[in-house]
Amino acid sequence: MMRASIYAGTVVIVIAAAVAIDGGVLQRVTAAESTPRAPARLSETGLYVLDRVGVVDERNRPFTPQYPLWSDGATKTRWVFLPPGTTIDTRDDSAWDFPVGTRFWKEFTFNGRKVETRMLWKATAANWIAASYLWNDERTDATLASDLGEPDVAAVSSSRRHSIPSTADCFACHGAKRTEPLGFNPLQLSTDRDPNAIHAESLASGSLTLETLQREGLISPARTGSIGAPPRVRTTDPATRTMLGYLSANCGSCHLGDGEIAVRVPSLRYDQMLRDGDAVAASLIGRATSWRVPGVRDGASVLIDVASPESSAMLVRMRSRSPSSQMPPLGTVLRDEAAIEKMRQWIARDLAARASNKP
């Protein structure tokens, strides 16, 4: 196999090996393919400096969502690569359009050991590629997981193990019709960070924020107002701000307010909360759901029951880890106890007070 050097902004094709290198990422291609495939090893994706696994290429920028997605207690590190000279099209605040060549990585560490790194790569104008990489025992590299996923790769408790998701599961959360990264949007990147955010993480050194994206000219059109008035959940109630932020991160990728699922749950997308978080919270109280809460008579189950918080469908499904009832339905095998307790308090105290003050 010929060896090729990587030069930013150039494409080198090694015909004998059928490998193309573009801006630091190796793409497995053949003459008949129009969409590249994920590389076989994480070290070939462009995350690291060539031949120095573990040394992140400085072109890949860290970012830290203010409302992290619950992943069975994993410690996560995230990076994004934006091709030089490109910008993110932010004309639609609810659906940023990323330039071709954008790559996201998210590394999962359990009990101090790197287990998995996921990549989401906009390989062409029409196609995103999702790939998961399983770290070897020596932690010297990670290999591409099967499209069907890899079961039970790491212990997360005495009786439960973490599994690498299938490609289908990846797109179930990131979207099949319109794929988008999670945790990289105006609310998540806001510098007005929620001090009560559940599982809050400190901003990593050099983290991209909405402000740095603006200052560095990485978004278009410019959002000068975001610097003086960074986005936040629109409510004066701290508990509502925290819970809606959590729900937007953990539920909003599916509960979009459109399609069949909207019949059961209103929109939990971040853009709705930026406009009127109080309206989103109010829409959950007494909202009928077709999923039956155990012990509640047919037709009487609601998302939030302020008179009987323990009978609220949202709380019951957060507590469950049965495949037929748990929420979110994918990606976790352990209950998020901190969020469950915050949800219980929010319903019993804050939402109950809101409901009692209705005219």
Annotation field: number of helices:
7
Poorly predicted residue ranges: 1-33
Number of domains: 2
Shape summary = globular
Structural class: alpha+beta
Q: Tell me the strand order in the biggest sheet.
A: 4-5-7-8-9-10
What is the succession of H and E elements?
A: EEEEEEEEEEEEHHEHHHHH
Radius of gyration: 22 Å
DSSP strand tally: 13
How many angstroms separate the termini? 75 Å
Biggest sheet, open or closed, and with what strands and sense? 6 strands, antiparallel
Beta content comes to: 15-25%
Mean pLDDT: 85
Helicity range = 10-25%
Structure description:
A 6-stranded antiparallel beta sheet has the order 4-5-7-8-9-10, covered by helices on one side. By secondary structure, the chain is an alpha+beta fold. It contains 7 helices and 13 strands. The chain has 2 domains: 182 residues, no CATH class; 123 residues, no CATH class. The N terminus is likely disordered. 20% of the residues lie in helices and 18% in strands. The radius of gyration is 22 Å and the shape is globular. The N and C termini lie far apart (75 Å).
